[in-house]
Structure formats: C-alpha cells, structure tokens
Specification:
acyltransferase, alpha/beta, membrane
C-alpha cells in the first residue's frame, strides 16, 4: 500500500516534469531550430518536411522519457502501416492529451487539423506554423486546403469528436472528417487509442494521476475506401457524409472494449 502511494506520487512529479519539458521543448524548437530552417532550407516544401520530421523525432524522445520515468507505457499495433500512409485521412478517437503526440511520433511527415486557438499558445504556435498544420477555419476554405494537401500526398490526422472524450458520456462525432473524405474523395485509415486508466482526459487535471501506471494501446485499423460511400446509388455528398459519419462512430466506439 505504501509502495503504491509512493509510486503514484512519483508519477505525479514526473508528469509535472514532462509537462514542463513539453512546453519548453516547443518553445526552444520555435525560437532556434525552426528559425534556423528558414536560413538553411531552400524552399517552403523542404522546410515543412524538415519541421514535421523534427516534431516527430521530438515526440519520440518525449514518449521515451515518459516511459523511462514510469509515467506511462505505450505500444502500437500496426505502426508500420501508419508510417507508410500517404494521401489519406487518419481518423482517431481522442481520449487524452497525448493522442496526437503518439500518432505523430510514428508518422514522420503527417499533417493535422488543429484548432485556431493553438495559434495563441506561446509554447505551441511556432510549432503549428513551422509544420504548416491545417487550421480549422470556414468550411469552404478548409475543404479547398484539405484537397490540395491530400493531392500532394499529405496524410491528415483528424479527431472527429472535436475535443477529448468525456468519460461516461456517449461518443459523438462532428461531421467535418466525413465531409472532407467525401468531398475530397479521400480514403480513411481508422485508428483507435485506448488508455487503461483515466489520465489527461477532458475532466482530469495533469496532477490527477491514476493509482496504476497507465497503458496506452494504439490500434491501427482498417482503411475505409471512400468509393464504398460515394458510389452507393450516386447519393448526394451530404447524405454520403452522414452515412460515413455513422460508420465511423460505430467503428470508433469499439475503443471501449478491453485490450487483450
């Protein structure tokens, strides 16, 4: 009992340290490395690729540190599939703050749909700009930009819940990911994230660490062919998006099942 309490207290301290390192790391990348890329990288495409690869490497180092200090454990099921994906949407559930960090750590050049509020975050705005992440703006602008990025081979990560899952509440999906998939005619790779304990969810502060060390499982699922939805009876895009959204919800709800 005493050992368990000591372990929980240690993980709380290390979680605080990890938060501090994450913020400081983002700030240092923005102030030094990304500015250096402006001088040494010859064009925007090269700078964007190098910035995204730098972020992926940084995330891998961060996750290694969280594991080494006992904050959490994690394992991927199908990581190589994510590494090889090009020109499609990666749609995932969103139980914790670490979900994008986990995915991007194994996807060297991934794009991501992010909230515009991140541009006001002093620790992350430089990262968002250097990586040229897609900002969630008006629908017409968003669709056009999504199409252009998918056509050039980008892989776009989207969390269709719009925010982190609220434990105990029914999962709901916004229709943005389905609309982009239908109107840009993009396949979808499904990913589910499962965490064995409540940690860094919508209703938990960083210092509310669970009694047991959490285990993250990232399961790479099927690739959904968009033609299966857009070619059915030649239905309207809005109807196809609704049908696809229902299908995504059904698939993502499987994250509530235990991982063996």
């Amino acid at each position: 009992m005493i050992a368990a309490r000591i372990g929980q207290f240690w993980r709380m301290l290390m979680t605080g340290l990890c938060f501090a390192l994450f913020g400081i790391g983002g700030l240092l990348l923005s102030l030094f490395w990304f500015n250096l890329l402006l001088l040494v990288a010859g064009d925007n495409d090269k700078r964007r690729r190098l910035a995204r690869r730098s972020i992926s490497v940084s995330f891998r180092a961060f996750l290694w540190f969280t594991s080494a200090t006992g904050v959490l454990r994690y394992r991927f099921h199908g990581a190589e599939i994510l590494r090889q994906e090009r020109g499609c949407l990666v749609v995932a559930n969103h139980p914790t703050l670490l979900d994008y960090v986990l995915l991007a750590s194994v996807m060297p050049e991934t794009d991501c749909l992010v909230k515009s509020a991140l541009l006001k975050n002093p620790f992350l705005r430089g990262v968002v700009r250097a990586a040229d992440y897609l900002i969630n703006r008006e629908a017409d602008v968003l669709l056009a930009q999504s199409q252009a990025r998918l056509q050039r081979g980008d892989t776009l990560v989207i969390f269709p819940e719009g925010t982190r899952t609220r434990p105990g509440e029914k999962m709901t999906l916004q229709r943005g990911a389905a609309n982009i998939a239908v109107r840009c005619r993009s396949d979808i790779r499904l990913v589910t994230v499962h965490c064995s304990e409540r940690m860094l969810d919508k209703q938990s502060a960083w210092y509310q660490v669970p009694p047991a060390r959490p285990q993250f499982d990232i399961i790479v699922g099927e690739r959904i062919c968009i033609d299966d939805f857009t070619d059915v009876n030649n239905q309207e895009p809005a109807l196809a998006a609704r049908a696809l959204n229902r299908h995504l919800l059904q698939k993502l709800q499987s994250v509530n099942k235990p991982i063996s």
